[in-house]
């Protein structure tokens, strides 16, 4: 089994808000991140796939194909977007880094042909990242 990771970067804005909470509870729980005008992050995304090396091509996955899938499914949809208002997964889900990793996994998991998705890692800052390995 070989594991291959491709990295990409994107920027997006969001805010944290749960409509079931009062304004005071949202502010207490989310602090400055509850500002309805949002705030932004420069995210780093790492997508790790796993599989056997194809003896004909020498690839686990065609890197161009993986790059194209990541662009189409994630970067084109999320880069320079206000996640709460422009990305359907976050119309009703709080766009935390955890939920972002899950949404990206869900967008990618059925798009690969030979390789299988192993991990989605999203860095919100150099000090904070979330790993998502799918649901077992």
Structural features, described:
The chain is an alpha+beta fold. It is built from 4 helices and 5 strands; from the N terminus they run βαβαβααββ. The chain has a single domain (2-132), classed as 6-pyruvoyl tetrahydropterin synthase/QueD (Tetrahydropterin Synthase, Chain A). It has helices spanning 23-30, 63-78, 83-86, 97-108; strands at 2-14, 39-51, 81-82, 116-125, 128-132. The longest helix is centred in the middle third of the chain and has 16 residues, at 63-78. The two termini are 19 Å apart.
**How much helical structure, as a percent, in the residues?**
25-40%
Backbone CA Rg:
17 Å
- Please, how many helices? 4
CATH topology: Tetrahydropterin Synthase, Chain A
CATH superfamily: 6-pyruvoyl tetrahydropterin synthase/QueD
Mean pLDDT figure: 95
How many β strands by DSSP?
5
Secondary structure category = alpha+beta
**Cα distance, first to last residue?**
19 Å
SSE topology string: EHEHEHHEE
CATH architecture: 2-Layer Sandwich
Question: What is the top-level CATH class?
Answer: Alpha Beta
Morphology call: elongated
- For the largest sheet, list the strands in their spatial order: 3-1-2-4-5
Amount of beta strand: 25-35%
């Amino acid at each position: 089994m070989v594991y291959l990771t491709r990295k990409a970067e994107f920027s997006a804005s969001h805010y944290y808000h749960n409509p079931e909470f009062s304004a005071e509870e949202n502010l207490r729980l989310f602090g400055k991140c509850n500002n309805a005008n949002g705030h932004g992050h420069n995210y780093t995304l790492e997508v790790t796939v796993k599989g056997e090396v194809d003896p004909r091509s020498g690839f686990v996955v065609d890197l161009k194909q993986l790059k194209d899938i990541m662009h189409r499914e994630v970067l084109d949809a999320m880069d320079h977007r206000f996640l709460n208002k422009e990305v359907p997964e976050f119309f009703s889900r709080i766009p935390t880094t955890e939920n972002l990793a899950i949404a990206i996994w869900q967008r990618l998991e059925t798009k690969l042909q030979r390789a299988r998705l192993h991990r989605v890692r999203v860095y919100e800052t150099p000090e904070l990242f979330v790993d998502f390995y799918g649901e077992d």
